[in-house]
Amino acid sequence: MKLATYKDASRDGQLVVVSRDLSTAHYATGIASRLQQALDDWRFMAPQLHDLYELLSSGKARHAFPFDPARCMAPLPRAYQWVSGPAYASHVERVGKLPGTTMPPGLYAEPLLRQGGSDCFIGPRDDVALASEAFGIDFEAQLAVITGDVPMGASSERALDGIRLLMLASDVCLRSLGDVQGRPMTAFGPVAVTPDEAGDAWRQGRLGLNLQTTWNGRKVGLCDAGAGMTFHFGQLVSHLCRTRPVSAGSIVGSGPASHPDWSQGYSCIAEKRAVETMDAGKPKIRFMKFGDTLRIEVKGRNGQSLFGAIEQEITPLP
Questions:
Q1: I need a labelling partner for 55 at 20 to 30 A (CA). Which of 64, 78, 136, 177 fits?
Q2: Which CATH number is 221's domain given?
Q3: pTM for the whole structure
């Protein structure tokens, strides 16, 4: 099934069920008013949401209305925690070869997770308002999962069972400000989907579909999100709960999708600049500026958008 959260002037929005083709939606109020409620009692509420989803997708839901991504918040507008990779060794290797950069130890031994801010997600059509272009504005196009409760010490197989929903994400990065202040906000695609919606493209914790990134109308990335993934999502979640349990409503991201085959393009500007520096001694491509636009999308094997698209513009603070 596919779930979204509509803006309603509250912090957590209103949960809606979205049809398979993303054309219609239906409020889930009679089941759960917010996504976190459904995650907290997933085994009871998920079957009810699925029944509504099937009714909606078959065109039989009485109170359906046209789905509008512009009305969406992030599917989970605020989360108990948000951590991300990088889960792609090719990304770390390229960026790690920059002069003055030290490759992290244990690159192939275990995931390298970092904590992000989970109290201020933005929606898929919200502008990215920032104070200065001098911050080195970048994007990280990636995939993410929302978990249920996962016990401390869970194996990667057990952790995979704890994944409830898949999402599309864009982590805004400010490269000039360092790794803490330089990650101000994350946007998520319009809908979160259960893994079965991806069909056989979801296999062993990897989504074998192309992540398409378009910057100012030009396609810059068409990365196979599954083939290049060194650590699958089960391993990422298992690593996160090595020393503590993970609560329902936690979000785990893959970091920017990358692939050893550079012809597939890039999912973050920093990686492209790293390749240019290795080839020519200095980067040619600039970071993002005010007025720049970004579009990120994943299409299923049927050609339909799986999550809907993230479409944003970089704007100055009002």
A1: 78
A2: 3.90.850.10
A3: 0.94
